[in-house]
């Protein structure tokens, strides 16, 4: 007995795509759990005239709130945060979802993604906070 011919348009890659999407969705969900509760430091600041207003900065200090995609973009693409790592960890779950979806309206800025992770000193991990 022989195997039936594959359906027209069927390829191994087409079969693997849904499984890869499921794995990606699970990874993004685990990332969201891991980084839940992260915030920018209370004393973090940014230039109102170039970055945004105090209301938007306050949102970065509030955990668990989805941010406007424009705010996420301005946050990860700004490189002069005092604690870039903490700020990036705050937006990372949403940023990762947008990044894996192609960055939407901000796809033109994909070249700066690596710079953002570099500025965050990603390989160092979060700074340990001293206990009082």
For the secondary structure, the number of strands is 0
Which secondary-structure class do the elements indicate? mainly alpha
Q: What gross morphology would you assign?
A: elongated
- What Rg, in angstroms, do the CA atoms define? 19 Å
Helix-strand string: HHHHH
Query: Tell me about the biggest sheet?
Result: none
Instruction: Give the proportion of residues in helices.
Output: 40-55%
Essential attributes:
132 residues; mainly alpha; 5 helices; 48% helix; 0% strand; elongated
Q: Layout of SSEs?
A:
Blueprint: H1 12-34, H2 54-60, H3 69-77, H4 84-100, H5 113-119
Helix pairs in contact: 1-4, 3-4
Please explain how this structure is put together.
It is a single chain. The chain has 132 residues and is an all-alpha fold. Helix content is 48%, strand content 0%. It contains five helices and no strands. Helix 1 runs antiparallel to helix 4 and helix 3 (69-77) crosses helix 4. The protein is elongated, with a radius of gyration of 19 Å. The protein starts with 11 loop residues before the first helix and ends in a 13-residue tail after the last helix. The mean pLDDT is 84.
């Amino acid at each position: 007995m022989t195997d039936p011919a594959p359906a027209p348009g069927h390829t191994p890659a087409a079969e693997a795509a849904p499984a890869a999407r499921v794995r990606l969705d699970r990874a993004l969900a685990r990332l969201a759990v891991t980084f839940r509760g992260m915030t920018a430091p209370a004393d973090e600041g940014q230039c109102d005239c170039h970055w945004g207003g105090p209301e938007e900065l306050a949102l970065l200090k509030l955990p668990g709130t989805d941010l406007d995609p424009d705010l996420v973009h301005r946050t990860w693409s700004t490189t002069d945060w005092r604690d870039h790592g903490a700020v990036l960890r705050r937006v990372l779950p949403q940023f990762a979802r947008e990044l894996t979806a192609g960055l939407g309206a901000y796809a033109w800025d994909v070249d700066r993604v690596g710079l953002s992770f570099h500025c965050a000193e990603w390989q160092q991990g979060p700074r340990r906070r001293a206990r009082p």
